[in-house]
Amino acid sequence: MNSRTKRSRPAHLRPLPARQVAALLLLLLPGTGCNTYRQVGLAELPAEQRVRMLLTPEELGRHIMFSSGSQGFISGRFVELRGDSAVFVLTSSVAHSEVRLPLESIVQLERKDPNLGRSFLLSTVIVGGVATLAYLGFEGEQNAPPNIDDDLTDQFAPGFRIVIPLGR
Fold it and tell me: For residue 82, is it within any domain?
């Protein structure tokens, strides 16, 4: 007889069908973004404000490495207004650069603000999901005597491991 026996999942804990999980995720995803963008003018921006902007095609061609997505938006941080131009620190996943953009080359400017309601919703979903997984992960019953026939050596083996390389 094999000392490692496969334990089956209790009948009352059936996994959700893939369609229900996908539908649930589609319902939750629109409300989980933690930032919102609001169209503003340059006069309304404080220094160090995170922005995204849409530039004219000529100016976009000069700064194409900072473009994100197919819509052509460029993300960055506003520094200051200098006469007929504005100074921004443009950022992408691989680079950043301080540039001076003429005001007429900025087609649309949007301010990035945190959305506290969506952040709270995202935090609630994450905490609720972890709590649900923890609840479903425990299969024992309270005040039940241990089953002598079970092999206790495998019951406390972790399902996954995270290694933190300290001092290596």
Answer: yes
Buried b (16+ CB within 10 A) or exposed e, 96-114: eeebebeeebbeebbbeee
pTM of the model: 0.52
Asked if 55 contacts 107 with a C-beta cutoff of 8 angstroms, the reply is yes
Number of domains in the chain: 1
Identify whether 44 is part of a domain. Answer: yes
Is residue 139 included in any domain, yes or no?
no
CATH assignment at residue 64: 2.30.30
Residue 111 and residue 51 in contact, taking contact as beta carbons nearer than 8 Å: yes
Question: For the chain (length 168 residues), average pLDDT per consecutive 10?
Answer: 49 56 60 73 86 89 81 87 91 86 91 77 79 70 65 59 71
Which tokens hold the place of 61?
Answer: 């061609």
Q: Are 95 and 66 in contact (CB under 8 A)?
A: yes
Confirm if 62 and 88 have CB atoms less than 8 A apart. Answer: no
User: How many angstroms separate the CA atoms of 83 and 112, rounded?
Assistant: 24
